Amino acid sequence: MVTSDQRRRQLAREKYLRQQQRREEARRRSRRNIVIASTLAVVLAAGGAVWASVALTGDDAKGSDVASSPSNTPSPEQSTPSQPEPKMAIDKKGSYTMALTTNLGDITITMDAAKAPRTVNSFKHLADKKYFDGTKCHRLTTSGIFVLQCGDPKGDGTGGPGYSIPDENLGGLGKAGADGSVTYPKGTVAMANAGPNTGGSQFFLVYKDTKLPPSYTPFGTFDAEGVKLVEEVAKAGVAGGSGDGAPQKAVTIQKAAVTKK
């Protein structure tokens, strides 16, 4: 005859076994999802839609005071902005220049305030606070898309200023083609993001014509000397030999200054 104490122990063992089974099933599902995600990325690359698997993300709404994600990369996760977007303090009809002094030379970016006023206003605000000074360009992509991504104070794609700015000028590069992409020409400067209207401080420099969905605010162009500099960085490749990651030839923004032309 089974005593009540034995019955309780039996029920406890059965409950424990059920819990273990559920945990194992959850682990199997998790492993399966990882495999599916990895397989999907390979399929996208094989199909020529490489830009879909190496999206230019940046967790730019996450961060501390004028301080992700290409990120992000950048991490594509997004948090609630911790502070408001800077008040408009530029001439919306004006043209502005952002001068980047780097360890490899100078890059001069011409920004169009008429087409991307809130983006330009944010860069002026951040540069005036020396936000970009001493930051690394953390991501180089040499396969599928051809960009150098900068503007993250953390240097890993996860940093941002603590606020978000909206997308602007998304139609500025023309209508998307049948594949859903437009060409970002060599010399274009555009915002990285973690989804619609999540721009922060991360931006990318296009050193070779690149097809991307029209989801990244194109707000300016950079000069021929800057293009040559980034091309040299791209020639040196990505650390570790992959097509996407930290540049082998490190690029540090020593100083950034925004002035009206």
UniProtKB/TrEMBL annotation:
EC number of the protein: 5.2.1.8
Xref: Pfam families: Pro_isomerase
Region Disordered, residue ranges: 1-29, 61-89
Location of the PPIase cyclophilin-type domain: 102-258
A molecular function (GO) term: peptidyl-prolyl cis-trans isomerase activity
Catalytic activity: [protein]-peptidylproline (omega=180) = [protein]-peptidylproline (omega=0)
Compositional bias segments (type: Basic and acidic residues): 1-27
Transmembrane stretches, start-end: 33-54
Keywords: Isomerase, Membrane, Rotamase, Transmembrane, Transmembrane helix
Family: Belongs to the cyclophilin-type PPIase family.
Function (record text): PPIases accelerate the folding of proteins. It catalyzes the cis-trans isomerization of proline imidic peptide bonds in oligopeptides.
Protein name, as recorded: Peptidyl-prolyl cis-trans isomerase
Organism whose genome encodes this protein: Streptomyces roseoviridis
